[in-house]
């Protein structure tokens, strides 16, 4: 009886330690496997042409697989708010090497690359390289010129090259008339909020990828807040001229009969007067945190 009791006590002491040891061993194995997988992926990602030779007639299928990995990689990084998207370009390079006609990889991949961190990879240079490859491989697809123009316009603020890209695209068979109009508008007026709104609206309406559409929607919402703040700043300046002092809040404009109510942003949060006596987004608004991440115009 005593021996059974001793064995039970011994098990109670030994088993937890054993399970702990097994758990630690498993974690160590998982870490080593993760490193091996990363090394394997690194080798594959550096060997696009080799992968194409090995894939033979299955290259387009493999390209689809790697394009799916691009979407998963970008999405998972976004969910975790990670700023390191260094693996994005190698994956896109591989996918488009395997299938030079993989249009979504060029179009949406360039958007992921061009957007500033932490929204995107902050690499408009890679985005341009990707799009120019797409144009070489698919010269009849005019929307790639649209994407190239967007990168030059939004990410690099190069109005001249943006206009040139839209103009070149307008000459491709089947291109929409607005490509020619946009080229002329940018060449004439340069970088304006009205031009940006037209471009983001076109991106939102034409994009088939939900992430790209959501990105365009955010830009359009923030452009709306820029319009609101500009109008409020005019009223604040008028109030200061009439009263000889700066308004401390927008409620003062309501009391002066210059506003019916305190205006709110698209998320329903009232605008505020900042330290510079100009209208600003409410710090409590979700748009307040988004605004610095997106360049609207």
Radius of gyration: 27 Å
Strand content: under 5%
Proportion in helices? 55-70%
Shape: globular
- Along the chain, the helix and strand elements come as HHHHHHHHHHHHEEH
Low-confidence stretches: 35-44
Number of helices: 13
- End-to-end Cα distance, whole Å, is 84 Å
Work out the number of β strands: 2
Largest sheet: 2 strands, antiparallel
Identify the strand order in the major beta sheet. 1-2
Mean pLDDT: 84
Structural class: mainly alpha
Describe it.
With 297 residues, the chain is mainly alpha-helical. The protein has helices at residues 2-45, 48-55, 59-79, 88-98, 103-114, 124-137, 143-155, 159-170, 177-189, 193-206, 210-243, 251-255, 286-290; strands spanning 272-273, 279-280. It has a two-stranded antiparallel ribbon. A hairpin with a 5-residue loop joins β1 and β2 (279-280). α2 (48-55) runs parallel beside α4, α4 runs antiparallel to α5 (103-114) and α10 (193-206) packs antiparallel against α11. The longest helix is centred in the first third of the chain and has 44 residues, at 2-45. It is globular and about 75 Å long. Mean pLDDT is 84; it is low at 35-44.
Key phrases:
two-stranded antiparallel ribbon; mainly alpha; globular
Summarize the structure.
By secondary structure, this protein is mostly helical. The chain has helices at residues 2-45, 48-55, 59-79, 88-98, 103-114, 124-137, 143-155, 159-170, 177-189, 193-206, 210-243, 251-255, 286-290, and strands spanning 272-273, 279-280. The chain contains 13 helices and two strands; from the N terminus they run H-H-H-H-H-H-H-H-H-H-H-H-E-E-H.
């Amino acid at each position: 009886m005593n021996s059974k009791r001793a064995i039970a006590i011994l098990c109670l002491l030994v088993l937890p330690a054993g399970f702990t040891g097994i758990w630690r061993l498993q974690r160590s194995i998982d870490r080593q496997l993760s490193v091996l997988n990363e090394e394997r992926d690194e080798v594959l990602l550096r060997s696009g042409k080799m992968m194409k030779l090995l894939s033979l007639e299955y290259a387009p299928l493999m390209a689809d697989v790697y394009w799916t990995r691009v979407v998963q990689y970008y999405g998972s990084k976004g969910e975790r708010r990670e700023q390191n998207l260094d693996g994005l370009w190698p994956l896109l390079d591989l996918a488009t090497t395997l299938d030079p006609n993989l249009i979504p990889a060029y179009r949406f991949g360039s958007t992921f690359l061009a957007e500033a961190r932490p929204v995107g990879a902050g690499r408009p240079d890679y985005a341009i390289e990707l799009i120019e490859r797409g144009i070489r491989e698919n010269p009849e697809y005019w929307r790639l010129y649209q994407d190239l123009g967007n990168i030059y316009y939004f990410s690099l603020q190069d109005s001249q090259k943006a206009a040139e890209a839209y103009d070149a695209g307008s000459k491709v068979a089947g291109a929409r008339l607005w490509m020619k109009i946009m080229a002329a508008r940018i060449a004439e007026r340069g970088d304006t909020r009205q031009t940006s709104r037209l471009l983001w609206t076109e991106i939102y309406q034409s994009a088939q990828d939900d992430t790209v559409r959501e990105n365009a929607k955010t830009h359009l919402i923030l452009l709306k807040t820029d319009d609101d703040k500009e109008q409020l700043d005019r009223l604040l300046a008028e109030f200061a001229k009439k009263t000889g002092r700066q308004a401390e809040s927008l409620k003062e404009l309501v009391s002066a009969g210059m506003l019916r109510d305190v205006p709110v942003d698209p998320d329903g949060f009232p605008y505020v007067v900042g330290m510079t006596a100009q209208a600003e987004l409410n710090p409590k608004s979700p748009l307040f945190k988004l605004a610095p991440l997106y360049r609207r115009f």
